[in-house]
Amino acid sequence: MKKLMIIILAVLFLISCNHEYQGVPESYHKLLDIAIEQAGDNAEEIKKAISESPAEQKEGMAFLISYMPERDLTSLGADFLLENVEYAYRAREEFSWCKNLPDSIFFNEVLPYANTSEDRDPWRKDFYERFSLIVKDCENIVDAIYTINKPINTEVKVEYDTRRSRVDASPKQSMEEHMATCTGLSMILTDAFRSVGIPSRLAGTGMWTNMKGNHTWSEVWVDGEWMFTEYYPDTLNKSWFVADAGKADPENEIHWIYAVSYKPTGMYYGAGTQAMHLINKIDPDKIPASWKPRIERMKASGIELPEPYVYGHNVTQRYIDIYRQSMSNSELNEDECLCNLVVYKNAESKTSQGRTSCLLEVFEDGNKVDFGYSPSSNDDNNNFLKFKLKKNTSYEFILSDQGQADYKKKIPILTNNEAIQDIALIFK
Known about the structure:
alpha+beta; 4-stranded antiparallel β-sheet; 16 helices; 5-stranded antiparallel β-sheet; 36% helix; 3 domains; C8orf32 fold
């Protein structure tokens, strides 16, 4: 009987040793079976990535493959996945803020090789080699965030520019073109954070409630709390878009604030290019006039919108709370307003490329009360020069051409009774 038991145990041991998922927690086995079946002709590459993962990295690899979108299961090679996982674990070993992360955060917000729908370029090794040197002397995660955030545009040589070839450009594409808009810039920033073990994810909205546009930014996980920052940073949880985000509509998905999740959440991300699946939820009466011809052409063509595959969280209420808190701490008096200024070159150039940077001085009764420089075409389209002024008050704005010392333009402005006011000026 003992001999029989020994034989049975030996057989079971051999079976377990030869199991395709040796070293992978059992909770992933069924998920991996499904993923490998979905991989089709690419199944051998997926199996290779699992089998060749070092023992300490197997669960991370299993996580990636278990929740991988089908587009990646059928196309990504083993070498791509192995390198991505290897350098993510290097960061975990090297940096204290990553070493102490819960597995759930490390797997979902550090380990992923992509954000949304961008091309799957192998950025991880390059970014690790760049940014690990920058943060090597940082003592904590906040220092590391600022140390990357502040100089990132000079490191990767990418600036905001609406002439980029696509919205969801990968870091490689943006760096080749030296330009990107908010989505591409946020992907660079998030990937830079992830390369040194800082948990990060994209966040954004499909459309602000004022129907003036949308936006994408980055979030970082600091001591158990998600906070936001941008490619052109202010401080954590502080930026020009807080007022817009704080007016998000919890009752309308197109106006929600979303954060990306690699692991399925039961809902899809609804910002950037992934907002297209929400287009039918826009109130037709609130669609901007410039949008209507494009939407009508899409509907007339009979082209079906692609099925969403990027998962997300609804984080709307957190941004509403941040805005309310900022307003409660605001120094605005009852008779004061915050004015958002942008200057266009001429009346025919009211686009992001038509914005011009010039000196803008504000006078009240002949006395200068403030001044600043308007955002240029290289700044985010939603970035403004901000002045705190008085409501229902007459001002004189003087615009000066920095290249032509003699050219000045005087514009009378009467503020209204709103707390937040948008003012567009024409330079010439």
